[in-house]
Amino acid sequence: MTLTRPIRFFHRQRIVEIADAPATRSVLDWLREDEQAVGTKEGCAEGDCGACTVVVGELGDDGRLKLETVNACIRFLSTLDGRALFTVEDLAPGGLLHPVQQALVEHHGSQCGFCTPGFVMSLWAAYERHQDAGTRPTRQQLADELAGNLCRCTGYRPILDAGLAMFDAPALRLDSAPVVAALQSLRAQPALHTASGFHAPRSVDELAALHEARPGARLLGGGTDIGLWVNKQLRVLPELIWTGEVAELRRVERRGDALVIGAAASLEDAWAALAAQHPQLTELWRRFASPPVRHAGTMGGNVANGSPIGDSAPVLLVLDARLVLRRGERVRELALDQFYVDYMKNRLEAGEFVQAIVVPQAPPGSIVRGWKISKRWDSDISAVCAAFRLRLDADGRVAELRIAFGGMAATVKRAAAAEAALAGRRWDEAALRAAQAALEADYQPLSDLRASAGYRLQVAKNLLERLWLETRPDAPLPAAALELRA
Predict the structure, then answer these.
(1) CA distance 74 to 51
(2) What are the tens digits of pLDDT across the range 322-346?
(3) Which parts of 339-407 are beta strand (E)?
């Protein structure tokens, strides 16, 4: 019999204990309804606007406190177990404004004020991180930090001005010692199993056994999709098994010539590793949702969810990624291009889960590109996401090519006809036109609120042409300026 216990986490200089929270109760609801901490606002309730941004702290592998912004509206309260929660009320407990807040006042960074607490928390997390490193961010780095915070009043300029100015005042740092001490004490508690049906196993073996015994339970990664099921679709979920406490699943590491991304590794960590191998993916990494979503969401969840507009799968497909799947004690591998069978359907068996994503090293001379097209530059869902891996031989012929698109079909998939049209051909304009025509056999996209079918097909052709323009043997155009803003 599994023993249950309360949720315990650090908040407002104390360890909070909650015994009766539903498994899907959000951090936002708890803050506003139970704690009366109403500085954290509900705007969209889907992790898009950033009005509910809070900061979660946990102990890193080095034992130091690591702070990350998350969206409280789609973060389940149970996932705070063993962590620390910071809200805008924590920044000025004695009434003296924090340098972040004071800078916003002085630079007129708030008008209606509804979104301001979320901006404050994103800026505070950046403030702590840069103070710790002894650095000051550029204006573009701050803009990237705030990609998940929307404002309808200020036009962002005064907020960015405040973000730069907050470092001019005398430093006011978080006293992390009591937080670290509290989190260290919480490490001694047993794995969390609540009476409401939330389970947080701490090893892969425990997770595998639990899911095999409870195949009807829902695996929970970052909750950036599942949170919307609860908030928007009002779905009643079965038992939840959270992957976020399994240290092995959160690792991203090099094994031989392959990059192994644990299924519970955050999108931020996973994309950082991919971009380190292929710097031209940096822009796609920065445009994948927002920092709070990337901090919470997992690449394993993004892949297993199987949305045709998930931006991880196109890149992983062209990199020939394989999935490590586990059910009980059985482990098997499956190529990602064999994983999806239909819209939001895959080859996982009952009780089976994605344990890791294995990304082999691309052959020498490979050119990797990834581009995202969406209505909004930051923090938006793709209309089309394209990924390419190209290798030319010494004669300028296509020795190897992978083309994958998201948003073009019921699943993310390779463009088999276009690839075949280019195989072995000289990488010239005639070959390009043949491949563009072949895309019409590969995809018959749908029209929806993000884009029409015709627009999507034209964009796909245009992105293939961009690849050719940047990589053609004769007079290639310079690649678009890439700012490494990590």
Answers:
(1) 12
(2) 999 999 999 999 999 999 999 989 9
(3) 340-342, 345-346, 353-360, 367-373, 384-392, 398-406
Secondary structure element (H or E) that encloses residue 11, with its range: strand 7-11
> What pTM does this model have?
0.94
| Structure-token pair, residue 407 | 């948003």
Q: How far apart (Å, rounded) are the C-alpha atoms in residues 271 and 424?
A: 31
Q: CA of 388: how far to CAs of 231, 313, 407, 464, in Å?
A: 36, 12, 15, 8
DSSP string, 398-465: EEEEEEEEESSSSS-EE-HHHHHHHTTSBSSHHHHHHHHHHHHHH--PPP-SS--HHHHHHHHHHHHH
User: CA angle, corner 314, sides to 312 and 319, nearest 5?
Assistant: 95
For 439-464, the pLDDT digits (tens) are 999 999 989 999 999 999 999 999 99
**For residue 142, which of 97, 107, 112 has the smallest C-alpha distance?**
107
Q: Looking at 286-346, which runs of residues are DSSP E strands?
A: 322-327, 330-335, 340-342, 345-346
Q: What are the structure tokens assigned to 400, written together?
A: 């190897």
Q: Is 193 exposed, middle or buried (0-12, 13-18, 19+ CB in 10 A)?
A: middle
Nearest to 63, CA basis, from 199, 179, 201, 164: 179
Distance CA 456, CA 59 (A): 44
| Rounded to 5°, angle at Cα 50 from 45 and 53 | 95
Rounded to 5°, angle at Cα 484 from 479 and 486: 150
